Amino acid sequence: MKIILDAMGGDNAPDANIKGAVNAINKIKAELILIGKEEIIRAKIKEFYNKELEDISDRLKIRNSTEIIEMEDQPTVAIKHKKDSSMVVGFNMLKQDEGDVFISAGNSGALLAGATLIIGRIKGIDRPALAGILPAYKSQLLLMDCGSNTNCKPINLLQFAQMSTIYLKNTFGIEKPAIGLLNIGTEETKGNELVKESYQLLKEKSEELGINFVGNTEGRDAFSGKIDAIVTDGFTGNVFLKTTEGLGKLVKRSLKESMMKNIISKIASIPALPAINRFAKTMDYKAYGGALFLGVKKPVVKAHGSSDETLFEYTIIQAEKFVENKAVDKMIEAFNK
Amino acid sequence: MKIILDAMGGDNAPDANIKGAVNAINKIKAELILIGKEEIIRAKIKEFYNKELEDISDRLKIRNSTEIIEMEDQPTVAIKHKKDSSMVVGFNMLKQDEGDVFISAGNSGALLAGATLIIGRIKGIDRPALAGILPAYKSQLLLMDCGSNTNCKPINLLQFAQMSTIYLKNTFGIEKPAIGLLNIGTEETKGNELVKESYQLLKEKSEELGINFVGNTEGRDAFSGKIDAIVTDGFTGNVFLKTTEGLGKLVKRSLKESMMKNIISKIASIPALPAINRFAKTMDYKAYGGALFLGVKKPVVKAHGSSDETLFEYTIIQAEKFVENKAVDKMIEAFNK
């Protein structure tokens, strides 16, 4: 297996990307190909590890590319014109089977445009979408769409439910994943027009499509561990995702400051640290890696824009599992029927 | 001052309502009037405290009402037909100046219908809306609309921004409250149609209306303490609110279980408990009381449906402050201009 990593994309590129790759290489079996300015990547590795790339692992490689798609670039324009950018080179390698999965933390719009334009949609799927994994009680919660389609139709949400089901079955081994529709109440009549119509469509089609649709789900129940995935439009999904992120930050900051308030609380907190760290680990959505762009013909992973080296490491490890589980092949198969 | 409390509304009524009222009575200066079946309320007080109502406080009163609006009742139908329900009696007392604020944890739809039909909108406000207070870093975050208007227009969001400004100025003493528009990115071009149009309207009108509009705000930055209020439609706002609630539950449960995992972690956690409790307190949105229904002519407070006695206590205390600050009068004044 070959994992392709955009070394130049993300807020902390290329340092975090390179360090994450080096951290990950001994935890994966796959070959890992860094795409970016070779000279810079080699110099950074020398600087960080005082070693040559080849001395770190014979599974760590570079593919040179001279351009970078910046955060300010117009997505489709950038994909069409920056032919030698790390992102476009990565997508082309994936398309030509020179790699099995492409990971990038770069310009989200460009990543989605590239995945659709270069890799292409799976037949039968109208709108590919981002599926993110969040922590839930003793389990995890799949959220789809995390933000790629601001305006959705009921058919899109139905397909998100199908894709979530196939993905969770194959990657997490959940036989009948419970799929909820994100809403502001559990009754059928609740919500805006999109949600009401989507509810009816899901109710009607779920059995035929093998979806275990459990009805409307409110955010207050989403993390209970009883729901495996929630489907929603990209606007609401992105609000949901970023709200959990914002509140997560507040939790971390408040907990730390409560512990560090004064010398007494500092000392008193020491014996509790293993428990607190265990707690922090459960809550860390980062451990679940990046979001998957489901609905395109090959595995594409969107790493968090602000990924640090640890997050890149996790994302690479998760990407390997994603390929191993052949979720994309199974999705193509299911939608061919 | 007189506070009117619906003793029969909410998941834990009337027990939690009565206990919350008794807990609150010595922390407030106002008279507190419980509305509901007098016989039942008296019997409960006897049962819980082994005292007569009159022996608890001479500021604690009862107004008898024989009906109850149930959670399943059709809001407007219930308001029109259940004339002797605790909710309708409460609204009528508020209207006739027999009380200064009405609190209920009952059927949300009926509460909103009653507030609009019996109390009436403030002239100049198209859609009254629920304003909730959430915890934020070393401060609080006002969220409006929390869920009363599923479908909104840009003019509604502009008015939410105005109401938030007036409320925060008068109740929290924030001179120029920073108002953000909830969105999925900070750029002007981000979001769905409603958000894009609302952005333009807010940009255009803010100076004239005295709103300190700080632009688009993402959920990840909402709790940083730099934003005083976020405005959004009731669907997105309700998703936001319930997501924080759901994640809050997960945090509480995970932290507790991490501490209680085994006897060693239990003992080790004891010295850290003051710090952990301090943390839990910062995170507890309940301490901020219920949501305010802003835009109607009198103070109406929507207590959380699942309020327990502590939450009722807090909500009553907050309601007293709400009246003291005359935020509603100031809102009427501002919109009269």
Give a written overview of the molecule:
- Two copies of one chain form a homodimer.
- By secondary structure, the first copy, chain A, is α/β, with parallel strands linked by helices.
- Chain A contains 14 helices and eleven strands.
- The first copy, chain A, has an eleven-stranded mixed sheet with strand order 3-2-1-4-11-10-5-6-9-7-8, sandwiched between helices.
- Chain A is globular and about 60 Å long.
- The two termini of chain A are 28 Å apart.
- Chains A and B meet through helix 9, helix 10, helix 11 and helix 12 of A and helix 9, helix 10, helix 11 and helix 12 of B.
What is the secondary structure topology, with strand pairs?
The structure is a homodimer of 337-residue chains.
Chain A: E1 2-6, H1 15-25, E2 31-36, H2 38-49, H3 53-56, E3 60-64, H4 75-81, H5 86-95, E4 101-104, H6 108-119, E5 129-136, E6 139-144, H7 154-172, E7 178-182, H8 193-209, E8 212-217, H9 219-222, E9 229-231, H10 234-259, H11 263-269, H12 273-283, E10 291-294, E11 300-302, H13 309-324, H14 327-336
Parallel strand pairs in A: 1-2, 1-4, 2-3, 4-11, 6-9, 7-8, 7-9
Antiparallel strand pairs in A: 5-6, 5-10, 10-11
Helix tally of chain A equals: 14
> What is the number of beta strands of chain A?
11
Task: Name the chain pair with the biggest interface and residue counts per chain.
Answer: A-B, 55 and 55 residues
User: How do the helices and strands follow one another from N- to C-terminus of chain A?
Assistant: EHEHHEHHEHEEHEHEHEHHHEEHH
Described by its quaternary structure, the protein is homodimer
- How far apart are the termini of chain A? 28 Å
Give helix % range of chain A. Answer: 40-55%
Provide the low-confidence segments of chain A as ranges: none
Give average pLDDT of chain A, whole number: 91
User: How much strand of chain A?
Assistant: 15-25%
In angstroms, what is the radius of gyration of chain A? 21 Å
Main β-sheet, spatial strand arrangement of chain A: 3-2-1-4-11-10-5-6-9-7-8
Taken from the alpha-carbon principal axes, the silhouette of chain A is: globular
User: What is the makeup of the main sheet of chain A?
Assistant: 11 strands, mixed
Category from helices, strands and their pairing of chain A: alpha/beta
